[in-house]
Write the structure tokens for this entry.
Amino acid sequence: MGELRGSHRMGADPAGVKPGGVVALRGCGAVGQMAARPAILLGAERVISIDRIAEQLQMAERHPGNEIIDYMATAAGRNF
């Protein structure tokens, strides 16, 4: 768990998350959710979490400011 706590902020800073920006994250598991939080706190206007696992999408959807995309529900995902 220590690695997760340290890596979430380390990912947002080098990515250059700025107020009003848009952040897309592939994966709504523990690491993806830990990356979404600092992006929101750093002022990202939109944080979009992309996954195919229903349980992870549901967890991510509970957090304010986090939009979700089930990529298997898209045309590209259906042809995957």
